[in-house]
Amino acid sequence: MSEIKATNITWHEGEVSRDERFKHLNQKGCVMWFTGLSGSGKSTLACAVESALVNLGKHCYRLDGDNIRHGLNKNLGFSAADREENIRRIGEVAKLFADAGIITLTSFISPYTKDRDLARQLCEKDGLKFIEIYMNTPLDVAEARDPKGLYKKARAGEIKGFTGIDDPYEAPEKAEIVCMTAEMSLDDEVKLCINYLDENGLLSA
Amino acid sequence: MSEIKATNITWHEGEVSRDERFKHLNQKGCVMWFTGLSGSGKSTLACAVESALVNLGKHCYRLDGDNIRHGLNKNLGFSAADREENIRRIGEVAKLFADAGIITLTSFISPYTKDRDLARQLCEKDGLKFIEIYMNTPLDVAEARDPKGLYKKARAGEIKGFTGIDDPYEAPEKAEIVCMTAEMSLDDEVKLCINYLDENGLLSA
After folding, report:
1. Option in B52, B67, B203 nearest A10 (CB)
2. d(Cα A111, Cα A107) in Å, to the nearest integer?
3. Is A89 near chain B, with CB under 8 Å?
4. Which strands sit side by side in the sheet containing A103-107, from one edge to the other?
5. What is the pLDDT of residue B114?
6. Does the predicted TM-score (pTM) go above 0.90?
7. Mean pLDDT, range A83-103, rounded to an integer
8. ipTM of the complex
9. Which residues in chain A touch residue B60, judged by CB atoms under 8 angstroms apart?
10. Is A107 annotated in the active site?
11. List of residues 6+ apart from B179 with CB closer than 8 A
12. Is residue B123 within 8 Å of residue B95, measured between CB atoms?
């Protein structure tokens, strides 16, 4: 098991820099922030983009409800203050991952412009690229898909404050990438995202 | 800038697995949790270990007061509940980094056994290696160093609840690595940490 000889262990004082991390991975850490209604295809696209990036030899990580809601944010509910804190923490963690050199994909409804803008500012003021990807899906299309049966419950009044039904979704006005999901194939959406990263120099360092 | 041809973009459905991430980086994500008094040398050693790992071609990230207290945990104070939540969030984030494949170094006093054990359990129950590194420094040695002048302030009563002065430090009883910092050189401490990772198969995947 042991392959490291003590003579190979060298180190220097001071901190390893972000640039060193980026060079080591030959990519620039950044945040790809997927936003849209429940059922708009955020997680499906984020997974597919992650897969495409791994096939290109890039290193990514996805933050989503599965690994956040039951962990870091398990002590948060669905009040206005808790929803804001939910997105704030995700923004802060996404920034740390980007600083670490990782192409970080977040997949949350994140319905409020103010909260998404806060996440953007956290990254941008620290010199990290933030890419907002708006899954533009008409409500009737998302509701017809209803993959988790949530719209049905919201219409029946079993879920209160559900985005698109009795709570607003504030559509991004300046998203870097807009996916017209009712008209585009998943393959075209993936290519749109990868090409954006490539054209912005994020796939090398 | 654009080097990616659309024909090179391939992807598969489903999630990229932890194993794929580990293989891609040729290492196993894990958490190296440095604990000890203020002035015990946690951050100095964590920086040196990070540097040594980068020289070995490994990918790391350090979580410390600088990038956590002013970001993710900026809405926490120093009450008992807030200190516990501080360490809980750090544990959750460190787990996410380890899951992403990163050798994650955390450098916080983390004085209470209960909180450190919670961080350990978060990792271990998810199949991730948690390595507690106890910087065993006598209080008088740490206080004589006093690199930030904090002991002086605590003795003067200007800081309340300071670990080692008027708040306890609960020493780990089963730390994976113990650094007797008053007797060991920094170089020996670095080698102890790197050899531990190597012998436990964490530097390959």
Report:
1. B52
2. 12
3. yes
4. A60-64, A103-107, A30-35, A129-136, A177-180
5. 96
6. yes
7. 97
8. 0.95
9. 16
10. yes
11. B41, B45, B133, B134, B135, B136, B189, B192
12. yes
